[in-house]
Design goal:
Layout: E1 12-13, E2 16-17, H1 21-43, H2 46-52, E3 63-64, H3 65-73, H4 79-101, H5 106-112, H6 126-150, H7 153-173, E4 192-193, H8 195-208, H9 220-224, E5 236-242, H10 251-263, E6 270-276, H11 281-290, H12 296-301, H13 310-316, E7 320-325, H14 334-341, E8 345-348, H15 349-352, E9 359-360, E10 366-367, H16 369-377, E11 385-390, H17 421-441, E12 446-452, H18 461-464, E13 471-477
Parallel strand pairs: 3-4, 5-11, 5-12, 7-8, 7-11
Antiparallel strand pairs: 1-2, 6-13, 9-10, 12-13
Helix pairs in contact: 1-3, 1-6, 1-7, 3-4, 3-7, 4-5, 4-6, 4-8, 10-17, 16-17
């Protein structure tokens, strides 16, 4: 009797062909591996911000909702569409993060890009921002394309679960301030954010804030406004907005910066304090020149009806109004909107370059503040003058000390970064001391208003935390 040989198990049945158990296991492992790769790629844009959050400033979420959402829909969408969406969200992320760092609204940041041609980007970290942005777009495309190619139902399910969990944690932590009115978080971290949503909300607020009458605010000039009745043409008024003059949180830094201005109180009446700020330098100009929280673009949109601007008011009283700035007149279109505030005579860096050959500053390199201050003060020999000066040389970024700048003094202030905070403090003190000397030397009765525009926009968290992130200092010095 012949015993038939045993045959290997067959995967064929009457119902069709089924994969072998070993093949089924291998297929699942491959699908899971692809899912892990896809999840990693869609979480990758969050990683640099997460790792650098300890050192760098931006208060960005541990995770960003857009990347999770695009990963969830990746299995059912075309990979090219996913790649383009990731690029769009990375650009929105960069706009929101950089804008928040430099006190810009996202829309103003976009509109500021054409002005970058006026900057000195050859040797400073400004060039790094441009290179990093271009590299981010390239990497974003690769993340989107390969993330979509590897995505499947497992990656989509995991990212959906992750999104729900982080939405719940973010709500419990109140990172967005939606639950408690004061917005105090349980833990300091921002759990989940949406840069794209923040940009949309910001644009919506800008579109809604078209009424100039509803946006009057109190700046340093607003505090001085009660004294305008004394400006009858017999005395002058000087307004100086000092670039990146923030309010130090440590008393030794305050004494270091403002010692020369404080000493003026021995001979003159001096008002000092701090005011809230919002936005970048042009917002500070609108705050002090026109008592408004709106940016200069609103001024240019509504040129028919008069704005309640200080130079206009003084001009009606017979004052000669003149504005100075050591940089290009084309920067932020100041040559176009300064006259709308009531400034009659404009003197920019390109107007004074033949008379003053020295150049100072980093990315915003222009006429040295000492020279432009001397040019401005030279107009105070006669009464009935309003002089406005926007300083320049303390604009960040700055990359090295000049030959006459000694950073060793920063050891006494317990400042270790000789290129960043230390150099800024030295330059701020230099211009404030210089202003104090001009106040004492001016013979004609003159009132002086000195105020900061915004806190120094350091990207380094430890440096940024040395200044109040919501208020700037002011000094109002009355004539003897």
């Amino acid at each position: 009797m012949t015993i038939p040989e045993s045959s290997p198990p067959s995967s064929s049945t009457r119902c069709g062909t089924l994969p072998l158990p070993t093949s089924l296991s291998a297929a699942k492992r491959a699908a899971h591996a692809r899912a892990v790769g896809s999840v990693f790629l869609f979480l990758l844009p969050c990683l640099p911000f997460l790792l650098s959050g300890v050192i760098w400033f931006p208060d960005r979420g541990v995770l960003v909702a857009e990347y999770l959402v695009v990963g969830i829909v990746a299995p059912i969408a075309h990979r090219w569409l996913i790649a383009l969406l990731v690029i769009a969200f990375v650009v929105a992320d960069l706009l929101y993060t950089l804008g928040k760092t430099f006190f810009y609204s996202p829309s103003l940041y976009v509109k500021s890009v054409p002005f970058s041609q006026l900057l000195n980007i050859a040797t400073v970290e400004s060039a790094l921002y441009i290179i990093a942005s271009a590299a981010a777009v390239f990497v974003a495309f690769q993340i989107g394309y390969w993330g979509a190619r590897l995505s499947n139902k497992y990656s989509s399910a995991f990212l959906s679960f992750l999104l729900v969990i982080f939405i719940c944690l973010d709500a419990l932590n109140d990172s967005g301030g939606f639950i408690k009115a004061n917005g105090i978080r349980v833990v300091s971290a921002n759990i989940l954010s949406s840069s794209f949503l923040q940009i949309v909300l910001n644009v919506r607020r800008e579109l809604a804030s078209q009424s100039k009458d509803a946006e009057l605010i109190m700046g340093a000039t607003g505090i001085y406004r009660d004294n305008l009745s004394q400006l009858d043409g017999t005395r002058n008024l000087v307004l100086i907005i000092v670039e990146s003059l923030g309010l130090p949180v440590q008393s030794r830094h305050t004494k270091f910066l403002f010692d020369s201005l404080e000493r003026l109180s021995a001979q003159r009446r001096v008002l000092k304090g701090s005011i809230p700020f919002k936005g970048a330098t042009t917002a500070a100009e609108m705050r002090e020149l026109c008592f408004s929280s709106l940016d200069y673009r609103h001024l240019m949109r509504d040129i028919e009806s008069p704005w309640p601007c200080l130079p206009q008011e003084l001009q009606r009283r017979g004052y000669r109004t003149i504005g100075f700035h050591g940089f290009s007149s084309g920067m932020f279109n100041r040559r176009d909107w300064w006259p709308l505030t009531g400034l009659q005579i404009l003197k920019f860096g390109n107007d004074l370059s033949d008379k003053y050959s020295r150049r100072c500053g980093g990315a915003f390199r222009g006429i040295c503040d000492e020279d432009i201050l001397a040019a401005a003060v030279s107009n105070l020999s006669e009464p009935g003058q309003f002089v406005y000066l926007l300083t320049l040389n303390t604009h960040l970024p700055m990359y090295k000390a000049a030959a006459d700048e000694r950073t060793v003094g920063c050891n006494e202030l317990q400042i270790n970064n000789a290129v960043g905070e230390c150099l800024l403090m030295l330059r701020l003190k230099k211009i404030l001391d210089n202003i104090s000397e001009h106040v004492k030397a001016t013979k004609m009765p003159t009132d002086w208003i000195i105020v900061g525009d915004h806190a120094p926009p350091f990207s380094n968290r430890s440096e940024r935390e040395h200044f109040d992130n919501a208020r700037v200092p002011y000094f109002i010095i009355f004539s003897e």
